[in-house]
Amino acid sequence: MATLTLAELAKITGGTLHGDNHAEVTMVAPMDKATQGHVTFLSNPKYAKHLASCQATVVMVKEAQKSLFDGNVLVVDDPYVAFARVAQALDTTPAPAQGIAPSAVIADDASLGINVSVGANSVIESGVVLGDNVIIGANCFVGKNASLGSNSKLWANVSIYHDVVIGEDCLVQSGTVIGSDGFGYANERGEWIKIPQLGSVRIGNRVEIGACTSIDRGALDDTIIEDNVILDNQMQIAHNVHIGYGTAMAGGTIVAGSTRIGKYCIIGGASVINGHIEIADGVTITGMGMVMRSIEEKGVYSSGIPLQPNKEWRKTATRVHRIDEMNKRLKAVEKQLEQKTES
């Protein structure tokens, strides 16, 4: 169990402590469940009313809320960011592997940096380069000439195909496949002819990829994911997609081939993005968005229909099916009004 003093918390968060420097915490907890030894935070002002009864050893708040808690208070610029940093410092998640397992299969010409770990039954093929402190979990496959930068981690059952390049400080969760063939075929009189996918996947630094996500290799050029991108679980990133710096994409999202997504975009869960389009920097697409055309301006975009009681939804669906008929009737009425005005 990790333990930190409040003085150490202040250093980690860059905050100002009002209280006992020597008091200790061992974990982060929700405000309503926190007790002695816990650190909690207030990021949403609507929960400020609970501060008076909070039992945490210390609460991280903004300057305006410091007087609402009688105990130890750590004043920070952004309590949610502070929570993230403290949670990292107190994290006790075990490593995906420790040392080189006897059952691991590592090619003689693979290059392993300092302090590399490879879990049970994992396969590291010829020409692979693993940087310092790389951790490969159990049952992983790293294909020929692939590379992982320093401090990157693969959890169990990850498959990295040949020639894939993954940068430093990346994290890939279990079941993900990177570098599989893109969906490329030509059709000759009803018969499908496979197009070999000759590109690869290049992933930048500090990228995190969720469980059971698929990222296809490029057809000719590479599929590219820039630095500081976070991808959720069960996503499909097709061949030759380019995802810009700092973009975040939630679970179940599907991106078709050759689409370019800008920097600092936020894509809501279960969104579907058409191929061969571009999305500008700073675009937010809310959940279940269906993006059929390029988005040229920063902003928030939505298309999913919110849930309704079934009876109301049926009425809405009926009206949508009749929209063409209603449009014709409206135009006819407008034409009659114009004729009356002219006469």
UniProtKB/TrEMBL annotation:
It holds the Pfam family Hexapep. It comes from Vibrio xiamenensis. CDD domains: LbH_LpxD (cd03352). Residues 24-88 form the UDP-3-O-[3-hydroxymyristoyl] glucosamine N-acyltransferase non-repeat region domain. GO terms for molecular function: N-acyltransferase activity; UDP-3-O-[(3R)-3-hydroxyacyl]-glucosamine N-acyltransferase activity. Catalyzes the N-acylation of UDP-3-O-acylglucosamine using 3-hydroxyacyl-ACP as the acyl donor. Is involved in the biosynthesis of lipid A, a phosphorylated glycolipid that anchors the lipopolysaccharide to the outer membrane of the cell. One of its GO terms (biological process) is lipid A biosynthetic process. HAMAP family: LpxD (MF_00523). GO terms for cellular component: membrane. This is UDP-3-O-acylglucosamine N-acyltransferase. PANTHER family: UDP-3-O-ACYLGLUCOSAMINE N-ACYLTRANSFERASE, UDP-3-O-ACYLGLUCOSAMINE N-ACYLTRANSFERASE 1, MITOCHONDRIAL-RELATED.
